[in-house]
What we know:
Strand 48 and strand 49 (about 690-700) form a beta hairpin. Helix 10 runs antiparallel to helix 11. Strands 50, 51, 54, 55, 56, 58, 59 and 62 form an 8-stranded antiparallel sheet that branches. The chain has a 6-stranded mixed sheet with strand order 4-5-2-1-8-6, with no helix packed on it. It contains 19 helices and 63 strands. With about 1200 residues, it is α+β, with helices and mostly antiparallel strands.
Amino acid sequence: MHAIGQLVLWTLTLTAWATSLSLDKVEFTHGFTTLLLRFSTEAEMADNSGDFTCESILSASSLATMGRLPSCRWLQSGAVLEVLLGDQPSLSVNDTVATLPSVLVATAASADPPAPELSGLVEGGSATAPEAILMAWPPVAAPCTTVHLSAAQSRGAYGRPLTAQWRLTAPNTAPALEAILNASSALTVELPATAVSDWSGSGNASVEVVVTVTNWLGLSHSATAPLSVNSAAQPPVYPSTVTEKAIALSGSTTFSVATRYADPSACGAASNLPSETAAVTWDYRTANSSEWLPLNASERVPWRAPVSGSLGVGAWQLRASADTAGTQGFQLTVRERLPQVAVIHGPNVAPESCGFTLDASTSFDELGAELFFYWSCAGEGVNGTCRRLPNFGPGQWVHTDGTGSLGKIFQVAPGTLAEGNYTFTLQLVRSEDQTSVFAEWFVAVRSSTVPITVFSGWTANQSISNQAGAEELPRVWGKVWPGPGCGGRESAQWTWALVEEETSSILTNISSSVSAGAMGELDVEAASDFPLNFLLPGQRYTMVLMQMGPTLPKTLAEAEALGLAFASSAAFAADAAPAGGRVLAAAVAAASGGEVFVSTEGWYDEDMANLSYFFYRFPSQGLSLVDDGNGGVEVNGTFPVVEWRDADSASHWSKQGSFLGFSELPFLSLALSPGRHLLAVVAQDSLGAVASAFALGPLISTPSASNVQSALDLSVLSNNANIILNTLGASIFALGDLDTGKEVYALTAAAATLELSDLGLRQMSSIATDLLRNRTAATAEQISQVAAQVFADLVQSPSPAAAHLLDVVYAVRAVYAAETDQVVQRSEQLTLLAQQFGQAVAAFVPLHGEVLLEATQSPGLQVFVHKEGYPHALLKGLSAGGFSVSSWELNALSDRRLAQASCSTIDVQLTTWLNSNPYDWANQSSYASLYVKPDATVTVVDLRRCSAAVNLTARAVKLRLPLPPAPTEAPPEGWFWQAACATFDFAELNWDSSRLTFVELPEAMECTKPSVEDANVVFTIFYRPRRLPPEDKELSMGASLVLILIFLLCLGAMAYANGRKGKDSQVSPTDSEASRAVVAPEEPSGSAGPAGSAAPGASGRPAEGKAAEAAAEERPAGADGEAAGGKETAAAGSMSPVLAEGPRAAARVPEPDTSAGEPLDVKVDPAFKDFAQDFASPAAEPAEPAAGPAASGASGASAAASAETPEAPPTDTTQ
């Protein structure tokens, strides 16, 4: 029994580990920065959890070799686990990598038990020696200048830190410098200003530095660089781009520098800075010439010099000079023009009885030169002849529509080629120099096959980034010719497949959408996303359009064996993001305003020469430095999750930190504010893919005001916007009682040389917004003037990045909101600033286009801009964003105000202050002003043509606005809240809802201003109290009979009157009359308030405060008691608004009041008038709800007269 028990136990153990999942291969890829674990089949987590980390899959011993914070993700639906190695890994070739037991299971066999520990030995690729690159920064320094020697540009680190050995070519020539160099093994060494000054004295000095870099594979390389001190080189000129570049004849690039005066106080001497900025000039010459020629750099950004291949083919030298002494040289090579590129799309197989087309329309020349196309054909074998093709016949060959041998396409008619193999040759001739290139396309004509053509948006072997967004991915599509004579079935279905080129393995299938083409063919597009998660770094792939069969083949060979038709695109290479980098920032004390040299190294990418670097700063909460046990320190804590590309993401960097600067070089000199910061560097490759590295930066002590002022002065003298903004950002939090004029002066200097790029404008917005916090209105006015200058520059140089500056406009509003003096002036300045921002936005909006921008701050600001063709607007009117003005009104404006305009577009701008009323200071002399709250949403309408405001005075405009939430407080008993429109009266400085009509729509209100009084229009929606109608009382039978009798008498009287007046006086209102909103009359003077009434004969506008007591007496209990009399009181002879029946939960809106506004065209017979007068109620209560034409509304919407006039006792209503 015991033996049997043992046998059973042993058998169960074997069964428990029976699994179809195994680890086939473990390999380094992407320059030893990435590890790929290839499984025998698709795998998933055994616990069915979608979330996982490296720690939940890999063994602890394996993780210990993968560096700090490695990251894992599944590729190819779980067939491959990608491990991006962390900081400073130790994993090597032939090391063992293992998974945890019982955590993985085969996806296709989920019923199987979890896999045991799976392990494999690491395989690796080849490596070459590193390339050492050394730079002294600056190369030529003034005395008392800190110099940085950096080998951070060196390549070949392969994901691990390079080690450096420093020396001088001439030993013992500079003992103080040698001591510093010999003590360092880092790639960057700082030579303090005092050491440089001690070495050079007060004169000039020069020495050559050597660095030898060694990678973790034991391979080394050396480089040298001169270090010079020149007492006349003031200010020193620093390169901020790589100093050697090569471009195509059609290409362009940019060199840039930074200039910084040396601060003598660093060496204990008195500071004596100049009062003017350093002037930077640029020159160029050929490599073998001695004469320098002036180069026209950017007037706006003098520290940047854009150059292009227009200089001509050859080697060029460029020089940036600051005040004639400090210089920096650059090398530019312009290569020969590339030949034109012939690209042919067409089928590789075709049946005899079916025609096909060869398409070379995507061929191109790098300079866009005109191209000529010449086709020829050659066949193989006895039957392979092209003589039957009519394309080459007399008189036919010159056709360019595809039927000849010239042109971008070449059409082969059905039945003109016998079975065989054919070679079509395209001669592509460039018109400018008559140079030719040749391309061949092979077609096999068979008795039965389907012609398929695959078109791709990439050329052969082009790289596609595995981080490409949907809008960045190239398009792929195909054409299929099915049906009789073309070898296929019209019922056949088609699919796309991603195929690994090396193995011809089909990795995944992609659904397709099929539509009929213009010539009977089928157009087949991929219907789902491009399978980026199937791309492995460095591998090559093709997209294949394939006929679907009963089963899905695993390889192209299997598809061919099944008789499935297919065609492949050109191959492309999968390009991975940069990897393996780290940030170097010493954890030492430093003073704010002083420079901190931050460098990054160790990156690997397929195109190292074209990496760019972006530097950021984040709060360091939750992070600390701890002893790593090896004499160094490491960061304790978790770095934040940051999204670098998607600005809409909640984790986007702009919502968590600050941008510090951009550089083509892997280092940057930064100014940091007091405290400790988390620094991040993002490396971006030429395809836009990004990767990041973090480090806890140095502890910055709080400086004295004099140090901050000195740092700001030095930055302004650089004439470099990035340096100024960086220093200003660091100084904002340490200024204390420093005069804000220094800050504004620095911001003005930065704006003058600001690069109008996305990051440049982001940085300007961030710094300006920070400067506006807790500032005075006077400072806000100065900063708004700086912003206005940037807006003007953006009108001349349009950029969508202008959107970032909307936060500055809102920040100015936040400062002005606290202002109690000059409120009218501040509102005018704010309106002007918003208009100037709108002009900057309109500059990049295309014709018939529009954009809606929203500030990131709360409560919020929105700016909507629409651009329309002016002739179209004159013909059709203008309608955008809820605003509309008729063509008739625009034509009237054209006659009077736009005749001198020369541009052909007109812009609409709607500036909406969300829950932030910029006119909250309005006087309370009007009824509407009592109820327009400080948190009201206000929309300002502006029209512009040729950047000039269009004056809307005396024109009718309409605006649809969303309904705000009804007031949360309950209205007085017997009253309800009614939504109404109001516009701001700039003459009376109050809100006015007279002469307005408004129609309530589902969740919106449409406001119409029949005649605008001001140059622009400001709308809002507010809630005002209105009386509920009296409740209906049940009538007795007798009373009902009396009412019926009265009704019949009324009908008889009406019939009698109509009979006397004739048919023409019988008026039946139309549907449109029944539902139209009615214009309210001019508001008479009198008391204000829901139940106020006018004194008989009162006219004109009372002075502020008049009739306040009377208004208060007439107001319902609980109503606002502050108001003075205004325009909205009812005039004698007008009737109170008629209310809709039945109270509503949120708000009540009255039906149209047929007694207000222009009288209806209805004549009343005197006899009926006398008869009806007996039924007029003398009570001082609102009239009973009325039925009739005015009580209906289209689609359930309630139309209402503005009825700004408060309710008053009914009087004589005879019209």
